[in-house]
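Q: Structure tokens for this one, please.
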Amino acid sequence: MKAPAPDAPQGSRKTFSASEIGAIAHLYRGEVYRSTIWRTRLDTTTNWAVVTLGVALSISFASPDASPIPLVLVGVLIVFFLVLEARRYRYFNVWRARARWLETHFYAPMLIEGDLHLEENWQDELARDYLHPRYHVPLMVAIGRRIRRNYLWILLIQSLAFVGKITVHPDRAETLDMVITRADVGPVPGEVILVFGLLYIFTWSGIAIWSWSDDQRRSRARGHTRDDAMG
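A: Here is the predicted structure, written as tokens:
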């Protein structure tokens, strides 16, 4: 293998020909298209979660004798949709990150006047991502991001609806014992359901906070904002 000349600049950027620039333009359009498709799929799972929660609310508050069990069981579906959406987000993030990488390192220098200082090895970084495709974020980080964007509100509405059902519907509970009794789900006592509910909301909130902290840590490690990084 031929060694580079001693005076060759280290990490210099490649100069693209007109045909190569055209190919990169088509590549960028393809990445934007794929990210748009997967972004739409994210909206689909969020809609499913909202619809199922709406159905559970309608059933639980349909009559004074209606049970709060649907509000408990719908949590299983919401968690399923959350994990499914997080998996889809990992795919979406691959295409989004590549498109963003091209925007900041290829197109931005064309548009700005003067010398825009960018990472010298940005082409190598993008090439490695094409040669060895990988997810840019772990599953737990993806789950935390989706909770922060959408699902924390869905989980809070579910929890508040359950609390409202056992405290004020069909009439106001006079004592704590009455609240606990209303929270009973079949053979499972109300105390267990309430403790589980607290763990349920605090666990997902904790994952959201942890993922935000991880995003901040990775941003500081790279020296710029997460939106400019691959992932």
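A few notes: The longest helix spans residues 18-60. Residues 19-111+122-228 form one domain.
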